[in-house]
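Section 3.1 - Work completed
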Amino acid sequence: MRTRIVLSFLILLFVSAGLVSAQQSGIKVKVLSSEGNSTKIEYQFLGYEQSEVKINGATYLNLSAPDMIVLMEKGYPQLPTYRGSIIIPDLAGMNYRVLSSEYYEVQSGPIMPSKGHFTRDIDPETVPYTFSNFYNTDTYYPAQNILLDEPYIVRDLRGMTVQFNPMQYNHIKNTLKICKKMVIEVYSDPGTGVINPFKRTRGLTAVDYEFASIYRSLFLNYGVGSTRFDSIPEPGRMLIIYASQYATTIVPLVQWKQSRGLTVLTAEYPTQTGTGNTAIKTYIQNLYNQPEKITYIILVGESDQIPTLNGVYESAPSDPCYVKLAGTDAYPDAFISRISCPNPTNAAYVIEKLIRMERDVTPGAPWYNKATGVAGPDNGGTPSYTDSIRMNWVRDTLLLGGFTHVDKVNGPIATAQTLINVLNDGRFVLNYIGHGSGTSWSNTGFNVSNAYQLANGWMNPFLVDVACLNGKFTLTECLAEALLRAGDTANPKGCSSIYASSTNASWVPPCDMQMYAMRLMAHQWRKTAGAMSFFGVMKAMDMWGGSSGEGLKLMEQYNIFGDCSLLLTRGVPLGPAISHAKLPNTENLNGPYVVNCVITPATAPLVLGETKLLWSRNNTVITDSIVMTNSSGNNWTANIPGNGTAAIYRYYIKTLDTAGRIGKLPGTAPTELFSFYAATDTTSPVLTHTPLQNTPKTLWPATVTASATDNIGIDSVWVNWYINNTSTGIRTFRLNNTTGNNYSALFNSVPPDVNFNDSIFYRIVAQDAGSLHKRDSTQLYSFKIINQVTVNIGNGTTAVGWPFYTYYMDSRTQMLYLASEITAQGGAAGFIPRIGFNVATVASQTMNGFYIKMQNTTSSTVSTWINTGWTVCYNGAYTVPGTGWQYVDLNLPFYWDGTSNLLIEICFNNSSYTSNTTVYATASSGRNIHYHSDLSTGDGCAIATTPGSTYTALPNISIVMNPGPNNITGDPRELPTTYSLSQNYPNPFNPVTKINFAIPKQSFVTIKVFDILGREVKTLINENKSAGNYIVEFNASTLASGVYYYRIEAGDFRDVKKMILIK
């Protein structure tokens, strides 16, 4: 039995009473404001539903709520939660604060634990319920109402998922603490570290047209306040990468896409792209980095003809990994698909099928509004529903969106022939939920052979397949490939495009992906196979972990077979294409405001007098229209008149051709309109800037970069700064506009102007181009001039597999670098906080049990394993992020004594392998020993008796050093789990004392000393520190006797302690 609990005064009764109410349950979310660096969100939790579950003979409650998912941490209470994303500033660290909240508590029966996520090849009945230690402790779960995920970047925008947990459960007290209402502010916090910043090479003036509607649904605050962006009307650039044997095959596809108005680029593999998946990724990345970017990518060829990438989560064959193009997150930044055909003849047929799907539309044909759902009785996921019920939800979504018929083809009754008969009748959409084998579906038993038995002609549906392995295109022929390839031009059949998984799919997250994709299909909010598929997966990523866990897995394992730019317009033929650059805001009140556009007819001429500019003044509804003038060729123009007063103008462009087809821009007009303000500007510019970190003197003068935006435009941006204090003189220099909204320049200074430990204080100011010259400025930032050098040893170009030998499961490497090599480049005794290698090719494999160890040694050669004397500087997991110089920040900085040679060991212990990551190396004998193997029971880091092989190529290395005395030391014992600040010792002291502190993760650490009047007398530390235990020495020889205080700030940790100086 399921009951609904409503948050009202009646809730004071026991939940177990099973109250039933017609009132609404679930959640309401409202963005109250979103301006600059702050977004305010209101959550209202309206109520929840409950049912009973028997576990080991005892009764537990299963709680859920509409429009919410549930927490699925194995062994912990399964409670409703809500996850939604917001747009955040490009370069800021983010934090939140609770502005208001309303809570109450109720007594509850025991809440069931979650079984966690598992894949569809596992029978849910075989997975037992487990109870974590939480059920034995007097605590609440989850501990917090609000959680912020790490920021991610989706093409044009930087976002962050905010999780609201309205229910917290204490099992010992059988109590539910419920948050009925909460208002929070998510804001830019200079004290919070910046993760995954969006460092634009050019300013954001408009967003990609294909992504615009995705943003509208993905981000809660899109279109609110300063997060409103107009879209670029053009459909975006396309790149077709083809294996050499398909050079002539792709010509019709290129020509057709060009006729649709796309700019189509082609690249032959490997002649133009370079060889290997890394080369392909680099080729795509370089195009994406251009101002025009890239929107669609089609790979033409099988995986042995054009290689794929392997995912990070489980090494899934993953073409979508090619479109992780912005930031360090996993959200896709372009659309990608593969026309996976065995030969040019088959590829030519598939391309013909894709072209016909867009070009040869038959208006009014019934199959465009028919769909089929295939599911069965399998019961799984949390909460547990049968696949047929989940498919009913998809069916309802399509019917509500205007589909006239959606079949229920459910196992175990339905057979392969049942499905064949249905598809032969013509269906536009096909959905599947159930088990898959790679070549078949368990429901109906439909398989690769049955795909070739279809006779559905050119009525080729779009398929979203929630099953295991049916998109594993590294097989000889998976089911998705068979449905794409089946038939020929004389006997066409199969599907137009397919979205399917290359590995074992989980129970619930792919269903959420499918549901959102079908919502887009039903309502035609997006019209391409790529947008429907990738928005579905991005929505599910937001719900299930973003760039980690189930979200990462889902993004990497699902591939599009066919054409990601395929228009799925449900029988609406293509019309004229309009392009136009939106009018900017202006202080011109009188007008006229000239609107120019380019209109490219489809296959019929435009109707005379039907190309119009529709507009309004201070009205959200369009009130006026003007017939546009054909100035030349495809160029059209018209003027919006002004009236001398401040106003907001809204407009769109509409045309009609002789085939009766309408073209509009924006495409969703009049729901979405272009707009601009005509008014005296009273709005200040908005500055975003990532504060400079401590800078080595060798790199002075440093470069200041900032982004400045304004509704009218920027006049100038400059920096005011001084050294240590204002008495040294305030200086000013102007930042130059590099690209778009980006500004940059060096400090107007030279190295002799600064000394080690100097503090540089600076503030950035921007002035707009409006008549009132409005200004904005940042806070006063500061950083230190530090004694740091970077030593690069080796310049060879030989690519070697060590020390990241991921073609094997286990690897150990020892490398010796000479003191003479270090000192020759300015190195001196001091700490080494990071090292780097110049990566030639990169594999996606994560190295687990990854260690970096160092020691000072008098040895000048290495030929056998050195097993003693090591300092562990890094212990954890590591994935090489890309090619070029890639650095590892050490958990514990190593102190090099300035005279010894430096011996470094890198090792790891994996349980799987992929391809090698190679690094550049230089010829050098007797300085490198290495071993790799697939150890089923051993550990690569424990290879001691197995002789290593000496190699004559030593990896080129970059060593970052902080020269100086060993007065800030790291404790080599195990890493701390909490922040702490210890009492100084000795205390009292004269004049030197030591202070111990611990940080559990990399943090920006500040330790300052104050006198009894609160005046700062010394800064001991003001820099990023890796996790570890540290000792800092304080020399008070210049200070008078008395009481002093020292304060630490590290992350969210703050502490103050007292010390006494007696001379």
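Second construct:
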Amino acid sequence: MAVAGIALHPAVAAVSDHTVQGLTPAGTTTDLFDYWLSNRNSNDNTDPGDPANYGINQGKQLIFTSSGYGAEGGNLGSAAPNTASINSWTGKSTSNVGGPYQGIVNANLGDDGYPTLASGNYYKGNRSQNNPVRYLNTDTSVQTGNQSLNYLFNTESGTAKKAYSNVKGLMQLNDDGYYYYDSQRNFASFSADASDSTGSFTLYDKPAVNSSNSVADQQSGQFFPFNTADQVFQERNGQLTSDASSTDADIRHLFGMHSKSTFVQPVNGMVNDNRAMTYEFSGDDDVWVYIDGVLVGDVGGIHDRLTLSIDFSTGRVQVKDGASYRNANNPHTYIDTTLKAAFTAAGKAGETSFRGNTFADGTYHTLDFFYLERGAGNSNMKLMYNLVQPPTSDIIKVDQGGDPVAGAQFALYSTGADFSTANRQPLATGVTAMDTDGTSKLVLRDASGTVIDFDKRYGNDSSADKANSTYYVLRETSAPAGYSRMLNDMQLKYVTPSRTSSGVKSGTLVSWPTADSKDSPVWKTGGVAKSKESIVAESSFTTADAGSPCVNDCTTKDVVESGRQLFAVVLKYDGTGDVNDRNNWRAVTGNMLDGWTQADGAGRESVVNALKGMTPDELKAHTFSLQSSGKYEMQFDDLPGYVSDYYYMLADKTKAKYRMEVYYSDATSVNGLTANNIFPVETDGFTRAFSSRFYVPNIKNELFVQKVDDAGNTLSGVPFDLYKADQVDVTEAADGTVSVTPKSGVSDPYDTVTTGDQWVNDGKNTTPNLAGANMFPSDLAKAPLTNGTYYLVERAAPAGYVKNAKATKVIVNDSGIYANAGVKGDGIKVIRGVGQLVSTMSTFGSTGSTDDTLRYVKTFPGTITEAQIGAGQQGGLAALHPAAAGTDGKVIINDTASTNPLSLMYGGRGAALQYGPLAQGGDYLFAGDEGWPVIRTSQDARPAGQTADERTELDKSTTGADGQGLSALVTGTVTVQVTNDREAPKVTLTNAIKVRKTVEGRAAAGDFTFTLQPTAPTTADGIDGLTDGKTAVSVSKDDLAASGASKTVTFGDLTFTVPAGSPDTYTKDYTFTITENDADKAPAGWGYDRSAYEVTVHVAKNADSGKWEAAVTSFTQTKDFGGNAIAAADRTQKTDHTADFTNRYATVSSLPLTGGDATGRLWMIVGGGLAAAALAAGFGLTEYRRRKGAMA
């Protein structure tokens, strides 16, 4: 160990173009851990104080330290002190110390599956007088106890620890079939993914980080996964170089790793080319290797490089010196034992079978590799193995469109033939997660993390009926947020072939009953059990045809390495002729989710056409290549059809529908293949192994909303809000309609979308062809539609339309989405469709598929109550309106409701990957305008003249309530269609009606007000600009400050509403009266004008402009100055649209006794003496005024 360091060099160039591809061996999982003392990002090349008091060390006995904790020297060398600590450097082997510190951990894993510290070792350090900074004196008063190391190796992050589970990409595969990582060849840098709970390694084409001069073991190329390439590399002349030192301050020490691998012991412990199966490690610090829970490789301690080798052909286990200062020709051996001896010492020899000192052939085992870097100096690691991996069974989780779905939880149960899980604990549990191959996957492992081997379970089952190893149930226990859970269980049965070729007998799980039975769980779940097959070639083989190139043996290695072709292809029997005649078989290509295709031609011509049509990745999956076992193998992860129908599995070959055939060709490229140069291979000596893959769909909860106007035309740009029930207060009106108001403190809805035309001809075959629409959730990660109650509301109407204020209640549960159409006439409809087949079922419906079980369906209309939804019931038959969406995205809904079902076809008439009408232009949707509309779908009979190779007859429905429903197999679509009524058109008359006020005789005595109000039969309805049914204007006396002064004012704008939906021929006349207010209350000496005017406004659409217009078409005086009516014949039009009012003031002297003007003021002055004369002269006064024009 070193105590000194220098600053880490700065990165000077990008290094990302210097990477190599990392691999993740099947059957192996790796967890990575970062530890720290002070904080995660602080330098760890010096201790912050007494290391036992900090970070990951607190309260623990296994200590991470930069400078040691207790006496150095280890416990194996001849000069090893008897007080050495497990937490200090074991020393240099050339000084008769060094090597591993043996016995730090117990010989058996703890009950929790993790190592435990052995009792009786020294672990605590004290400061020395000679070196008060370091704790290199051992405190012999305390010793270790059986403390579990689960705090270091479990996958929970915690105090001073960050865990990354199931990390990928550390290993490579060499030409001899060994998986390896070597820090002296490739620097490895780890990067976490977005979840920060897993991630992958990036491997670089050069090593990085050199030993400090202060350490004994000099080496170039070290393992520091939490450092980045830019921290340790420079690029010079296009090559990576590294000046970084292992003791630099920025180097991230203090980490750990745990790998778990499953393997099977091959015959004699040997793999291809007579190589022994081995597991080898070289490096520092602590490494403990357990097999089946027994410590077989003890390389513990803080030490220089050591090597561990396990030879499974002999069972020999050795630990040797591997440091730079060792005797390379004769390294010191510290441990030399055997697997059997290790099991015996642990008291476990009787728990597995042995052949001599190694495992018996065909036995299955689990290897745990625990690794720690506890110091602040070198960190070197080389790992290499060629363990023979048993097949793994896994779950592939997809949504309805075949996209991966992470986060689904599953439980696998072993059951009896009744498939009951009562009183049974799960055999395996887990959660699907994204894999490096782009799938969301869960490898089935037991509670200890061991891959479940169904062959081993079956072989080890000594019961007479083997029921517990034959029958299984796979249950989805929880779906990720926003998805519907698989409600029914997958029932599975383990089946084996009728015969075996060389190697361990292997079987697989199938759905039971199989899909050719109407009672199969396939039709209840949408989950499909498929089989994976690996074929391991013999070291040499022959071809079947006389005169063929390999009739007298070809060596497999020579064939593959020379570029010649050895491949396997799945063939399907065409149903005619002899099943043993290869010309009656056709090659099949494709995959489970995208469907299968039969190649053109027959026999070998079909095989050639299939191979030439494959992508490079598809071709790779069909080709034999070198694997980690050292053997040449083809691994096919997606067998079409059902394995129980394969030629290899059946005793009665005449019942075979599929076969896997191996071919050889001396062509060196696929393009060179012809029907005349490919030859079937005799595969009796090839080893076939099977495992299972379960495709399980989750239907993503999706709610569509469409906005239309009162004519059914789609509207884009309309925002809709979705609220959770606990976000709003709900009000139900007397007519049954519902509205909602956000609760206090709720500022934002749960989710928002805006309608658009994105689903019209968008090129996506799995989305509805709707315009003026959008879909919830807008973002699955942020607002998934989880189980619960929601309310959908229109936020704002588009210009020219009236907002629909009604809310739509939506319920989401495990069985799907339900939407309430409210009451008739509320502008809300719910449109239901069958949608698409879930991706796992597409092979049963797609055009061109050999099986048409689900190609033709019948869907019935119905309704359901809210109580039935809550109880998981299906509702009943009810009349709904048949409908269809056109290519323009507009939904055409029939006026007449019907209970008659619709017959549909998958991909029917323009529906692509949706169920559509059998006939062009037919209906394929149902719409309801009240309550909770639903549909129920079942299998339909084939139309006349239609045929297919295969079909399972399901129970069909005649009433909608009987037969086998297909709700688990089809997505269903739920669209809420919200109608906006158009706003009534409005037309404005701007400042067109005026009043002119004039005073004569003197300045105005006060202000004047004039009123415009509708004249019967005209009312104020539909007129904007009136207050209390009228409008008024005023003229200030300041504007009439002298005799003869005049002032004109306008009544302002009047806006008229045209009734919504009015035809272009609509017209209307509005009549108004204009008068002066308080004209009968004139002050003394004044005569106020009591005239009245009538105005007619005509509203009509301008034929030229297409716009509604309002215009004054009549403006006449209807009363004179004195308020007397003017005969209609005497009225004249005022073209200036101005009502004139003139008030006059008269003096006393101007009033004659017999005629002449007189005013109220005069009469008041003369008093009673003139009263009689005034009365007598009244008639004459009126006539005089008429003559003078005062009442004109």
